[in-house]
User: Fold this.
Amino acid sequence: MQTQTVLSLNGLTKSFGTVSAVKDVSLDLKQGEVLALLGENGAGKTTLMNMLFGHYLPDQGSVEVSTVDDQMSPLPLGDPQAAITAGIGMVHQHFTLAENLTAFDNITLGAEPIFSFKRHKAKAEKKINDLMQKSGLVAPLDVPISALTVGERQRIEILKALYREARILVLDEPTAVLTPQEADTLFENIRSMTAAGLSVIFISHKLREVLAFSNRIIVLRHGEKVGELATKAADEGKITKLMVGTEASENKRSPAKPGAPVLTLESLCVACPSRRNSLKNVNLCVHASEIVGIAGISGNGQSTLAELVSGMTKPDSGKIILDGAEIEANEPRTMIEAGVGRIPEDRHKDGIIGHMSVAENLVLENCEDPAFQQRSILDWSAIRRRAEALCAQYDVRGPGIDAPAKLLSGGNIQKLILARVFESNPRLILANQPTRGLDMGAASSVAERLLSARENGAGVLLISEDLDELLSLSDRILVMRDGALTETASFERNAIGLLMAGDAA
Assistant:
């Protein structure tokens, strides 16, 4: 690996009102290096990278990037186009795609002059198809982004950055929706690109990937740089202690003692425009006091299954039975009143109302509870007291309970949703990607709460593309592919990955 410095961040500082997000952070990136940037939710990782990419203007500090003749040159701040021109590409954790445009248009957007008389579509398609073949990140190019699943959108984000042939690539949780085989393929291709001179800043909460993939690790805590070490000298214990100040505790899962069926799906069929997302004769039973895991590559029907269980989609045929009673009107309010707690896949779109306050979002699903209203008038004192208590209990960090929920970081929005769900003591918990984008401490807390709910008699339907999460929490695992469910007795990573890809015998 060459030692030429290609990027220098010097004393970057950024505050939002009274909240200090990043404090005097400096770091260097070498050519051909993979630098892992770690920290808890709210530690400042994404804010730091957004300053690098020009989305945020720093309060203080500077950025220098190498030129083609290996000279360091100041990067204009607050200018994303300047970052792109300098060879910096960023794959965001939260998507930056135009939903009304196709995947192809999103990938090529901005890569050609806007007033060009001729569009080189065939050449662009060939380049994208070559990238998909090399990276293993396959997605439909002629479909609007609004019709794609979360996982497919993530792949488009990665392809969009690779299409621009960046010399410096920032990856913010790039493998969150990939199978182990897909993640390995991505890493292999990035390794080949780093061998050719690409430099990578890699943000991830998966320490196993960080230890296998990176060359060097930098840790942020509360917006400050608190540690830097070579990956070969690191282990999970050292990294965790830097991130949270203490060693991580391991979640203990006792043997399951399943009770009566809580959720039963009988011969469920749902037709969708995308054949893969349709449900085909799905049979599923979730008992009290058990966690049933659903594995699968994003876009194979998991979203439709989650919408069905949460009351957002009606079945074309088949039965939904909750606690022995068939659900006739499958609507969100019906499912909530029947005791279903819902953790949605897309926390921004389906989990909160962004312009409403944190306190309001915490009572969205139970504002009719007498504890929060008197004579049909909301009791704002009671609502605010509850919000203060839940934000403290679930460590929801942000500008305050009266601030719009959209101002929270992604991880803290997830904590808000978790607080709302778990405090309702549901009979069935639909946990759809519950730890996506969460740091180790927060993810461990989610796992503890799911296990606690299981111990207290709730049934849990856990839909996740994180096999580590499924393997550590599930009592049974089913694999969803092309809208059909297959139960597997194997708890072996590669065997499940092959079922997900359709390559198992």
Notes: The chain has three domains: 5-244, 249-339+426-505, 355-425. The first helix runs from residue 45 to 53. The radius of gyration is 23 Å. The chain has a mean pLDDT of 86.
